[in-house]
Design brief:
This protein has 424 residues and is α+β, with helices and mostly antiparallel strands. The protein contains 11 helices and 23 strands. The structure holds flavin mononucleotide.
Length: 424
Amino acid sequence: MNFRECLENENKRGSLQVVSEKSNPNLEVAIQINETEPAPVLFEDVNGLRVAGNLFANRESYARHLNIPQETFLHTLHAKLSAGDVQLEKRDGIYGEIELSEVDLSKLPILYHYQGDGGPYITAGVWIVNDPQFGPNMSYHRMMITGNNRGTVRVVENRGTFNALQHSNGVAEAAICIGAPPAVLLAASCSPDPGINEMELAARLDEVTLVKCKTVDLWVPDSSEIVIEGRFVNETGDEGPFVDITGTWDHIRQQPVFEVSRIAMREDAIYHALVPGRGEHQILMGMPKEIDILREVNNVCRCLDVSITPGGSAWLHAVVQIEKTKASDGKAALEAAFRAHKSLKHCVVVDSDINIHDPHDVEWAIATRLQADRDMMILSDQPSSSLDPSATHIPGKKSRAAKMGMDATIKASGEEKKMFYRVR
Ligand SMILES: Cc1cc2nc3c(=O)[nH]c(=O)nc-3n(C[C@H](O)[C@H](O)[C@H](O)COP(=O)(O)O)c2cc1C
């Protein structure tokens, strides 16, 4: 399914809200997306183009778009992503039914999301780069627009695009796909080992056909609504201020500058707008980490489900549900979760009778099954998330913070165990 088919399906279900009057990309659209969340919304005229938001604002809608049953969502995703080799479909020709005659980013409905942002930002762009050492890489990067053909790009250190830039003297080509199909949106947010092409992960989830770009030597998903081609120019500039997934201001940093060489799109293109810190940002960023934790915890005990919780900004907190068979399983699961998601800060492990999507139920498990001096794991001065305002941040270095794991599983065995179950 591609981006506009997802939108059409939501329309058929009657859940799509449509704003037909002209809307202003300067805060107004972001405010309305925020207000309609989690309902998907289509703006019919923002700078002359259509804009869609909240298509992936919760697990249910994502499961629907990927045609995966909600009940087995994470396990099915994990199984599909781990399946064998796939052949990437390619078609002849060049991407784009329409090409802007002038390379001018101000012709796109790029939003200002918050008062005080450093500029209008592209936030849902999937970046395709080629690493001369490891091959193609796909990930998200926000880009702050600084001119008609220029922007400054947040490139987190030691990930795919950062490595590609290191391996190409800072002048790598890139294609930014906006309105990419849901399988591509999910795969781009995964961080497999270098050398694994995320586009192949996407193709394990759904059919993806690739087509060549015109001004850069890269392949992009054919159904992308808009593709911006260009190159990093081995310069840096101020990036920010920007409100990130935690809903707090991220630091202003010196980041790589990108120069655009072509803007092309489908007919009647739909710009994908993603409001930072809101549901869609949280789902797209947090969900792949749930799969990583599921995989790693499964290596040490049976993992039933994982939730990267909205209260932890879908990035810093996780609840892991296990089927405990050994006394050591709870702590082993905590260690595995921290290994799988390096930015994870607090993690709770619970038994199969706890609803991990209900914060009250999780707190109940902590209240009735945990003793702080026996069941806690506190790790000091760990590599951590650049997004945690309370961590220690030194420019150019990985952020550091303390971590806390809570084993809220039942510790008793035999007959004693029944004292720990909620009486229904
Ligand atoms: C909506 C969204 C926005 C993101 N923005 C950025 C960003 O601006 N910079 C960045 O380096 N990573 C960003 N990320 C995270 C990366 O896309 C993610 O870590 C990715 O898995 C990195 O993949 P890689 O390790 O293959 O490069 C974002 C993720 C999402 C879902």
